[in-house]
Each structure stands twice: as structure tokens, then as C-alpha cells.
Amino acid sequence: xxxxxxxxxxxxxxxxxxxxxxxxxxxxxxxxxxxxxxxxxxxxxxxxxxxxxxxxxxxxxxxxxxxxxxxxxxxxxxxxxxxxxxxxxxxxxxxxxxxxxxxxxxxxxxxxxxxxxxxxxxxxxxxxxxxxxxxxxxxxxxxxxxxxxxxxxxxxxxx
Length: 159
Known about the structure:
77% helix
């Protein structure tokens, strides 16, 4: 196994770990919501729907994506790395936006729970951005990618 392959395997493992942790931690507030009798009396209120949307957008959705992306990265799929970087950046922006604007706009602390949980993973997301960069470099070292169509050598044939 070459050093690039070892580095790729390690980086993919890191990506998978972050994905699993974010998905599991994102499920905890949803489980609390399910077992909270007062919240489930009016299960389809605007606040409950908004809470589920925020939790899914900040924690569960990206966590599941990172887990799936790790599987696709083993196949040297470069597009997955680009999409994962974008998702990590959007996730960081959402967490910061929820923490900055959430205290002023919401009167219910319930809506802040997903952003508050994700706040502890901001260093992990920043580290994930570096890991994804490392994945891209390892993929280039293993198999340099082409750009669209590549010119083939022309063979001349006698008539």
C-alpha cells in the first residue's frame, strides 16, 4: 500500500466518523421531541416543523451525507469531495447564523438546540475541510484525473 493510499484510507475513515457522530447527535433532539408529550400533542405546529427542519439541515442531513460520501470516496469519486466541501461550508454558515440570529428571533429555546449541539462540532467541521483537501490530494497522487476529453495519438494508415 502506497503512502497516498494509506492517507486516503485514513481520511475516508475520518470523514465517515464525523458523519456518524453528526447523524447520531442529530437524532438525539428528534428523539427527545418524539418522547416529549407536550410537543407531540400538536405534532404539526409551525415550531415543531421548524425545529425538525433546522435539526435535519444542521446535523442529520450533513452527517448522513458524509457517511455516504466516505463510501463513494473509496471509488476515487472526485465530485463527492467537492460537494462535501460545499456542504461543510454551508453547515458552518448555518451554525453561525443560527447562533447569531437565533437568540434574537426565537422566544423558544427549543429552536436553538440543534445549533447549540452543532456549535461543539465547529472545530470538527473545520478539521473535516482540511481532511477533504487531503482526500483530493491523495486521489490526485493515486490516479491523476482527466479533464473531459483527452487527445489520443493519431495513427497514420497507408491506403
